[in-house]
Amino acid sequence: MPKNTSYRVDVLTQRVKNDISNIVQFATEFEDEFVKIGVDEDYKRIQAAQKKNFETLNKMLARDKELDTLCEKVFEEKILGNLSEERFLKLSEKYEEEQFELKAQIKNMRKIVAEEKNHELNANGFLQIVRKYSEIEKLTLR
To answer: Is the pTM of this model over 0.70?
Structure first.
Protein backbone atom coordinates (compact mmCIF):
# COMPACT_ATOMS: atom_id res chain seq x y z
CA MET A 1 0.00 0.00 0.00
CA PRO A 2 1.47 3.40 -1.03
CA LYS A 3 2.48 5.68 1.74
CA ASN A 4 0.76 9.09 1.79
CA THR A 5 3.33 11.80 1.40
CA SER A 6 2.66 15.45 2.00
CA TYR A 7 4.58 18.42 0.68
CA ARG A 8 4.49 22.02 1.66
CA VAL A 9 2.91 24.23 -1.01
CA ASP A 10 5.58 26.89 -0.72
CA VAL A 11 8.34 24.30 -1.26
CA LEU A 12 6.58 22.86 -4.32
CA THR A 13 5.87 26.32 -5.70
CA GLN A 14 9.49 27.34 -5.36
CA ARG A 15 10.66 24.11 -6.98
CA VAL A 16 8.34 24.58 -9.98
CA LYS A 17 9.42 28.22 -10.34
CA ASN A 18 13.07 27.15 -10.25
CA ASP A 19 12.47 24.46 -12.90
CA ILE A 20 10.70 26.94 -15.16
CA SER A 21 13.45 29.49 -14.58
CA ASN A 22 16.11 26.91 -15.52
CA ILE A 23 14.26 25.99 -18.72
CA VAL A 24 13.85 29.65 -19.66
CA GLN A 25 17.51 30.34 -18.94
CA PHE A 26 18.54 27.40 -21.14
CA ALA A 27 16.16 28.57 -23.85
CA THR A 28 17.63 32.08 -23.72
CA GLU A 29 21.27 31.03 -23.72
CA PHE A 30 20.93 28.18 -26.21
CA GLU A 31 18.02 29.31 -28.35
CA ASP A 32 18.88 27.22 -31.42
CA GLU A 33 19.37 24.05 -29.38
CA PHE A 34 16.17 24.70 -27.46
CA VAL A 35 14.19 25.06 -30.67
CA LYS A 36 15.74 21.84 -31.96
CA ILE A 37 14.69 20.04 -28.81
CA GLY A 38 11.24 21.61 -28.82
CA VAL A 39 10.39 21.20 -32.48
CA ASP A 40 13.22 19.15 -34.02
CA GLU A 41 12.55 16.61 -36.75
CA ASP A 42 8.82 17.24 -36.89
CA TYR A 43 9.49 20.87 -37.78
CA LYS A 44 12.00 19.90 -40.46
CA ARG A 45 9.53 17.41 -41.92
CA ILE A 46 6.79 20.03 -41.95
CA GLN A 47 9.08 22.57 -43.63
CA ALA A 48 10.04 20.05 -46.33
CA ALA A 49 6.40 19.12 -46.93
CA GLN A 50 5.42 22.79 -47.00
CA LYS A 51 8.08 23.57 -49.58
CA LYS A 52 6.99 20.62 -51.73
CA ASN A 53 3.31 21.55 -51.47
CA PHE A 54 4.03 25.21 -52.24
CA GLU A 55 5.96 24.17 -55.36
CA THR A 56 3.10 21.86 -56.35
CA LEU A 57 0.61 24.69 -55.88
CA ASN A 58 2.70 27.00 -58.08
CA LYS A 59 2.84 24.32 -60.80
CA MET A 60 -0.93 23.90 -60.59
CA LEU A 61 -1.45 27.66 -60.88
CA ALA A 62 0.88 27.80 -63.86
CA ARG A 63 -1.02 24.96 -65.54
CA ASP A 64 -4.31 26.76 -64.85
CA LYS A 65 -3.01 29.85 -66.67
CA GLU A 66 -1.69 27.64 -69.46
CA LEU A 67 -5.14 26.08 -69.86
CA ASP A 68 -6.69 29.54 -70.12
CA THR A 69 -4.24 30.35 -72.90
CA LEU A 70 -4.93 27.06 -74.68
CA CYS A 71 -8.68 27.66 -74.54
CA GLU A 72 -8.20 31.12 -76.04
CA LYS A 73 -6.01 29.73 -78.82
CA VAL A 74 -8.49 26.96 -79.62
CA PHE A 75 -11.25 29.54 -79.80
CA GLU A 76 -9.16 31.80 -82.05
CA GLU A 77 -8.30 28.88 -84.35
CA LYS A 78 -12.01 28.03 -84.58
CA ILE A 79 -12.92 31.64 -85.41
CA LEU A 80 -10.16 31.81 -88.03
CA GLY A 81 -11.51 28.63 -89.62
CA ASN A 82 -8.35 26.63 -88.92
CA LEU A 83 -10.19 24.14 -86.67
CA SER A 84 -13.25 22.02 -87.39
CA GLU A 85 -16.28 22.26 -85.12
CA GLU A 86 -15.78 18.65 -83.99
CA ARG A 87 -12.11 19.21 -83.12
CA PHE A 88 -12.93 22.51 -81.42
CA LEU A 89 -15.53 20.80 -79.22
CA LYS A 90 -13.18 17.93 -78.30
CA LEU A 91 -10.33 20.24 -77.36
CA SER A 92 -12.57 22.69 -75.53
CA GLU A 93 -14.19 19.91 -73.52
CA LYS A 94 -10.81 18.34 -72.72
CA TYR A 95 -9.28 21.61 -71.52
CA GLU A 96 -12.35 22.66 -69.56
CA GLU A 97 -12.58 19.27 -67.87
CA GLU A 98 -8.91 19.41 -66.90
CA GLN A 99 -9.28 22.96 -65.64
CA PHE A 100 -12.37 22.10 -63.60
CA GLU A 101 -10.49 19.26 -61.85
CA LEU A 102 -7.40 21.41 -61.48
CA LYS A 103 -9.35 24.21 -59.77
CA ALA A 104 -10.63 21.74 -57.17
CA GLN A 105 -7.05 20.51 -56.61
CA ILE A 106 -5.80 24.09 -56.31
CA LYS A 107 -8.46 24.89 -53.73
CA ASN A 108 -7.44 21.84 -51.71
CA MET A 109 -3.71 22.58 -52.04
CA ARG A 110 -4.23 26.20 -50.94
CA LYS A 111 -5.95 24.91 -47.82
CA ILE A 112 -3.08 22.50 -47.12
CA VAL A 113 -0.45 25.21 -47.64
CA ALA A 114 -2.35 27.60 -45.36
CA GLU A 115 -2.62 24.95 -42.63
CA GLU A 116 1.10 24.23 -42.91
CA LYS A 117 1.88 27.94 -42.73
CA ASN A 118 -0.26 28.21 -39.61
CA HIS A 119 1.64 25.29 -38.08
CA GLU A 120 4.94 26.99 -38.96
CA LEU A 121 3.78 30.16 -37.24
CA ASN A 122 2.91 28.09 -34.17
CA ALA A 123 6.42 26.63 -34.18
CA ASN A 124 7.94 30.09 -34.56
CA GLY A 125 5.80 31.27 -31.66
CA PHE A 126 7.30 28.57 -29.47
CA LEU A 127 10.16 30.78 -28.31
CA GLN A 128 7.84 33.74 -27.82
CA ILE A 129 5.87 31.70 -25.32
CA VAL A 130 9.06 30.75 -23.50
CA ARG A 131 10.16 34.39 -23.42
CA LYS A 132 6.78 35.41 -22.05
CA TYR A 133 7.46 33.34 -18.95
CA SER A 134 11.08 34.36 -18.49
CA GLU A 135 10.44 36.13 -15.20
CA ILE A 136 7.79 34.25 -13.28
CA GLU A 137 6.97 35.83 -9.99
CA LYS A 138 3.82 33.97 -9.06
CA LEU A 139 2.32 30.65 -10.13
CA THR A 140 -1.36 30.58 -10.92
CA LEU A 141 -3.77 27.94 -12.15
CA ARG A 142 -4.24 29.77 -15.47
So the answer is: no
